[in-house]
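> example.struct
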């Protein structure tokens, strides 16, 4: 099997596992955790987020949905334009996080958050953060190597 095919297979498996973990933990949170009350840092509690990260724009759920869709289209655009970007594991994390939260928005109209760290987040938010950092590191390395 060629290295290229192994890379695609590996990223596909990671994507599926990340997405399944996100969906499973959100399901678990809805049926196992108490709804947000007096929470302390850090803790687990159920929170329905109508906004974007940390409940920003919570009073504008349609704007939050539009922002999520725009983010996915933007990621897709850059992946189409740059073959090197498509092969990054960081982008795999970005896709899993973005699609995990978009699924919530489309299915429920909100995102299920369950980890309190000063604001409520979920596994998909963690995937987005990891992916963003990995892609940023890649961009810095590429920029340095071009000089």
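> example.seq
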């Amino acid at each position: 099997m060629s290295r290229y095919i192994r890379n695609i297979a590996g990223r596909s498996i990671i994507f599926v596992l990340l997405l399944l973990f996100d969906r499973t933990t959100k399901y678990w949170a809805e049926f196992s955790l108490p709804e947000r009350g007096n929470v302390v840092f850090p803790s687990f509690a159920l929170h329905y987020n109508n906004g974007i990260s940390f409940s920003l724009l919570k009073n504008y759920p349609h704007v939050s949905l539009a922002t999520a869709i725009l983010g996915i289209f933007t990621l897709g655009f850059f992946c189409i334009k740059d073959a090197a970007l498509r092969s990054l594991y960081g982008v795999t994390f970005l896709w899993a996080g973005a699609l995990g939260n978009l699924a919530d928005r489309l299915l429920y109209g909100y995102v299920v958050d369950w980890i309190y760290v000063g604001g409520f987040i979920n596994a998909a938010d963690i995937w987005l953060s990891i992916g963003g950092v990995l892609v940023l590191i890649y961009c810095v390395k590429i920029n340095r190597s071009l000089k």
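> remarks
The chain has a mean pLDDT of 91.
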